[in-house]
Structures are given as structure tokens and as C-alpha cells.
Amino acid sequence: MRYAQCMAIQLIRDNRFGAFFWTQFLGAFNDNLLKFAVTLAVTYNDSLRGSFSPGLLINLIAALFILPFVIFSATSGQLADKFDKTKVMRLAKWLEPPIVLITALGFLLNSVELLVLGVFLLGTQSAFFGPAKYAYLPEQLKSSELVMANALVESATFMAILLGTIAAGSLMSQDAGNAVVYVVCGFGFAVALLGVHQAQRMPLTPSHAPDLKVNWNVFSETWRNVRFATGLSTVWPALLGISWLWFVGATYLTQFPLLSKTLLNASAGVATVLLFAFTVGLGIGAFLCEKWSRKRIEMGLVVWGLVVMILAGLLLHVVLLNYETSQNQQTVIEFFSQFDNIAVLGLFVLISIGVGLYSVPLYATMQAFAPRQSRSRVVSANNIINSFFMVVSAGFAIVILLAMKGQVLWVFSAVTAINLVVLALWVFKQPYVVLRAQLLFKVNGRHLPHIENLDHLGEDGGKLIVFPTLLHDNFLQRMAALPIEMTAVLSGRLKPSRFANRLRKHGFILEFNKLSEIDTQKELIKAIASHIQQGRSIAIDKPMFELLRKQYRLDDMPGVLAKKGITMNVLEFSEDSHPKNLSNQEISQTVWRLIRKDS
């Protein structure tokens, strides 16, 4: 844990990440300061809300904040790929101060229309900032720094949500008068200017596609972005997983004021306490992910994150179903005096720990394996899908509330039920992710090599991966070390077991009894060609690779397949050993650098 803290501090002090970190943090703080202030105003201020019900209006505001991501993400992704990503983020930050002033005017005039417009413009500014933001990290950081960076960004983002909503909640308790305008919006304006300053400190990020022609038709480009993302076999499942995360997060966070006002019969400050519990859990989950992933991109944590969310969600349903609503409105102090309230807080912490475990590997996978020249457009496709899921989440909540006569507990319970379906989809549609979840327990992370230069894993086409060694005794360590789905070629058969049968069933291993024989080697050549033609990855050891090169002209295979329109990437690890006093059955602590071999 001390090492992780040192690494986190070093990253924040490094201007490559530090200036970006504070720019992102301040922007997230301002978004939530203003959005939550507006949400609380329409929830508790009857004169501002008019004839609209609070449940309908808070979900409408949530949808309007997300709508710009649907409209503008395709355009912003193109701009971030065509131009310097840092400059795009700087320009987006300059939009923030005027938006704060529009929101302030809405409070001054008691105009729900101006407040809604301010929320929509906040979403617009974030939509132009987002693609460049997520594409910036893999450009500036090493692959070994990416998991920690994402954990810091996730934790800081939700800490900004916490601080922004605490500030908004404490001030909104003063009946949303001039204090909101002079303090909330005044402070928000200062934060916006500080964010602009931090953005100027970020290092430039040269474009990889300067000749890209921007398609200004948002409809056709949106469709094109999403279609392109669906063709990225490694990245697409991660994008869908991230979108479900935003559905869950948006549903929970949006309902906290309503849960506080209705079922709990508590003050606006309690809504902030609920958000605090959720935010703390997210931070804990993100850093647990960094630790348990062994500083690697570890998709297996997606499964365990969902399991935690489901179990905590089921318990939350039981607690809320049997909750006895107080006759008098609870203050924050009174809220903490009830055991049931403590149970609710604890379960929200557990749910958000699951969300943290679930989210970090998905974001790291998207960043590491998206093609470099189109990374921002991949992020924009992700933002588009995220936005769709979040807008649907608002409609989903409204339908549940109308059907269940405003009982908000059924919104949370419905999310838990769908989480069960999502877990089943991961298990049956992505068996590789389940394998990664098992490897977390089967492989000791201390004995895994450190891997650098993962960019090549995101390139199009099938991959022949050449390991320094791929021995029968340590193939699981090799599979655990490399964060992509692949088939490992083994000499000899594994001992019978349910785990070995599962590896065979899903094609994670190919076992050859006599690789020294010519017929077996020819069979292996055919297996390699078959995997590459299907766009899959297959791994062999270097001695076998050299043998196939000399006797079967393996070097000619990429050219032969290219004539058929098939891309074959030969990726080889170079090993930089660090002597360790380890037994023969352990893998030495080494650094493996991934190199693309040109045919």
C-alpha cells in the first residue's frame, strides 16, 4: 500500500499527469456543484418547480445533462484526433466560466428554464472535453502507469462529485436564495478560471491523424463512430461494460435526493450523506482494483465487481423494503442515530466498491487497446453509447416510479435484477473475462513479469505472440501476464480437471503431444493460420517460433495472408532479466518489452 501511495504521489507531481489530474478534478467539481444545486432547488423549492413533480423534473435534468454527449461526441472525437488533444481540452475549459454565469442568472431570476439551459450547456462542455481527456492518458503515460492513473482519475472524479454536492447541499439548505448566486456560482466561477489555468500547464499531445477530414454531419458521423467501435473485438465489450456502469451510476446518484425526501423523510443534507457513502466506496474500489490487478489491466475484476454489486443490492432491497419511514423529517444527526440508516449507508458503500472494481479495468482496456490514430473517436463512440444508456436510465427510473407509485426502492431493486442479467452475459458471452477472474486466485502476482509497450495489442488483425518461454509448468502465469484473450500452445496434455476442460472448451489452450514430429509441426502451422484468419491471438514459445521460421518459412505467412486481405501481426517479447532468488518453478521478476516484428 505504501508503494501505491508513493506511485500515486509521483504521478500527481509529474506534469504529464498532474496538470491533467487537476483540470479534470476541477471540472468534475464544478459540474456537480452546479448540477446538484439545480437538482436540489427543483426538489425542495416548490415555487421554482411549479406544477412539475420532483421525481419527473430531477430525471429530466439528468437526461438533459447527458443529451449533448449524444449530439456532439462524434464531432468532438474527430476534433481530438485531428488536432492536439491538449489544445482541444483547453478550448473546452474556456467555455466553462460563461456557463456558470448563465446558471447564476437562472437562480437570480428564479427561472427553471435558464437553470435547465445551464445544465445542458455543462453537458455540452463536458462532451467536447471527454474524448480528448481519455485519449490523452495513454499518449502521455506508460502502460505500467495506466491502471494507477485511471484509479486516481476515477477516485478524484467521485471525490469532486462528493465535494461539489456537499457544497451545493449545505448551501441549498438555506432555501436557495441569494447565497446560491453569490457563493455557489461565485465559487464555481473561480473554480472554472482555476481549471482554465491548470489546462494551460498540460503538455501538448501531437495529433496522429492531422489529415483527417471532419464530418460535420452529427448523425452520419455518430453512426460511423459506433460502427467502427463495434469492429474492435478487444475494445467493444469494454465499451458496453462502461456504458452499463454509467447506467448504474446515473440511476443511483439521481435517485438519492428522492430517496432522502420520500422513503427516508430526511433533509437535503442526508442526500449529500448518501452521495458521500457512494463516493467513498468508489474510491476504495478503484484503489483496491489497482492493488488486486497487480498494476496490470485486469478484466477479471469486472466479474468480481458485479458480484459485489449484486450481493449488496439484494441486501439493500431487504433493508429498504422493511424500512419504517420517520413521521418527522430527519436531520443529518438524527439520521446517524438509526441502525437501519447505517445499514443503508454501508450497503451503498459496498455497491460503489463493486462499481470501482468494475470500472477501472474497462477504462484501461479502452485506452490501451484502441488504435492510436483513432483513439479519440473510440472514446467519443463510448461517450455516445454512455449517453444513450444514461438517458435510458432516466426514462427507466421514471417508468419504475410511475408504475410503483413513486416508491424509489424499486428503482434500486430493478438495477440489481438487471445486474444479474449483465453478469450472466459476461459469463456466457465473454468466457475470457471469467478466466481472468479465476487467474486472480490461481496465479501469484509477485511472480509475473512486468510488461511494457502494449500499444501493439490494439492493432487490427490476428496476432502471433512469441513468448521468451511458454513451458508446461508456467503457461498460466504467461496468460495472466498478458491482458488479452489468446490461445496458448502447450507441449503435452494437462492433467485432467474441470479447469483444464474449461480451457479446452473455450480454446484457451492447444495441446500437442509430440511437437518434435514433422506432422505435429505442420498441424501447428495450420492452427496458427486458422487463428490469424479469424482475427484471434495465438501464443508460442521462441524456440518453436525459430524452428517454424527455418523449416516452414513462417516469415512468409503475413505476406501470403495479406494478399487475401488478412492482417497478421507477429509480436515478440524481449526479456530484460533481473536476478532473483527464486525456485525453478517460479517466474523471475523480469521486464518484457513487446516488439512488433516486420515481415
Provide the fold topology.
Blueprint: H1 2-13, H2 15-44, H3 46-49, H4 54-82, H5 85-94, H6 96-108, H7 112-140, H8 143-172, H9 178-201, H10 218-230, H11 236-261, H12 268-292, H13 300-321, H14 332-335, H15 339-369, H16 375-403, H17 409-429, H18 431-442, E1 450-452, E2 462-467, H19 475-481, E3 487-491, H20 498-505, E4 509-512, H21 518-533, E5 537-541, H22 542-552, H23 557-562, E6 568-577, E7 590-597
Parallel strand pairs: 1-7, 2-5, 2-6, 3-4, 3-5
Antiparallel strand pairs: 6-7
Helix pairs in contact: 1-8, 2-4, 2-7, 2-8, 2-9, 4-7, 4-10, 4-11, 4-16, 5-7, 5-9, 6-7, 6-9, 7-16, 8-9, 8-12, 8-15, 10-16, 11-12, 11-15, 11-16, 11-17, 12-15, 13-15, 13-17, 13-18
Largest sheet, order of strands side by side?
Answer: 1-7-6-2-5-3-4
- Label the structural class: alpha/beta
What is the helix tally?
Answer: 23
Main β-sheet: number of strands, strand sense, barrel status? 7 strands, mixed
What's the total number of strands? 7
End-to-end CA span: 44 Å
User: How large a portion of the residues is in β-strands, by DSSP E?
Assistant: 5-15%
Radius of gyration: 26 Å
Helix content: 55-70%
Membrane topology: Multi-pass membrane protein
InterPro entries: MFS, MFS_trans_sf
Main location: membrane
GO molecular function: transmembrane transporter activity
